[in-house]
Amino acid sequence: MVSADKAKLEFEPFSYPYGGTGAIQALVESLDFLILAEDDGRGYTKFNL
Q1: For the whole model, what pTM was predicted?
Q2: Would you give the distance in Å from CA 21 to the centre of its chain?
Q3: Which domain range does residue 1 map to?
Q4: DSSP code of 39?
Q5: CA distance 18 to 5
């Protein structure tokens, strides 16, 4: 946890480009967190919230 209402999760998607980050995104969203940005091996993507 970065603070009471923010957390940071870093992981290595070893299966790129075949597996992607969809499974970890679904897990994070199921815990009611928002994903602010990702780097899935194709580059850094910042989501507009």
Answers
A1: 0.65
A2: 7
A3: 1-49
A4: E
A5: 32
